[in-house]
Amino acid sequence: LPEQFSWDDYLKETESIAAPLHCFKQSRIPPTNDFKVGMKLEARDPRNVTSVCIATIIGITGARLRLRLDGSDNKNDFWRLVDSSDIQPIGTCEKKGGMLQPPLGFQMNASSWPMFLLRTLNGAEMAPAAFFKKEPPKPATNCFKVGMKLEAIDRKNPYLICPATIGDVKGDEVFVTFDGWRGAFDYWCRCDSRDIFPVGWCSLTGDALQPPGNNVSITKSSAKIQSSPSKVTRRSMQSPQKSAPVPAQRGRKPGRGKPPGQSAV
Ligand code: MLY
Fold this sequence. Notes:
Helix content is 12%, strand content 25%. It is an alpha+beta fold. N-dimethyl-lysine (MLY) binds at residues 154, 157, 160, 162, 178, 181, 185, 210, 251-253, 263, 265.
């Protein structure tokens, strides 16, 4: 069986430190997730952020909801924290004088939207207002430092949360690099992004933290400053799955022919 990933061991192995809690726009204790699959709510359309749409909860994962916009296809699901400002109870939009919009890529004729909306809301199980949690305050400054470790959403596979390292810091932004993945998934984001979490987040929410990728140089925090090749350690290709003939890593689609760690998607 593959060895469990342990932050304690990994931080020692990589001689690095975890980014402090106060760097993140996340609550110290993750919010409780009371939502249920099938409930409906209002959500900002991720592909058209001025629109508020009706969404259905398709899945629950840790402190996040997997959402699908009603009238959209099943290829554009997205994930939001229960304390995200992108979601609100049904009725909020109207109360504020706004109008619910069809999602980008509405599958029917635009003229059928009013009737579609009526039918969608009729008899719908609406998520209770008490389930929506207040967004945490944002950090006063960008206090991330290069080399600090964190847990981050893989934006190409947003259901995955993975061990990551701050690769660069510029103004209010940080460069999130994914350990063991050769840069293919790295991204810049604001330091107050809701996509980055302190070390230990997944173990508190019950999310499955992905293990780092295989057989790639792990740059130690100290080595980053000196950029000395002698301080770079190599992880064994075998270590994460000693006896498993098939990669057991969640989220990896089988049969793509590429060795682990080199897949770009
Ligand atoms: N698209 C890849 C999954 C890669 C995940 C990488 N993350 C964990 C940084 C695949 O399907 O194999």
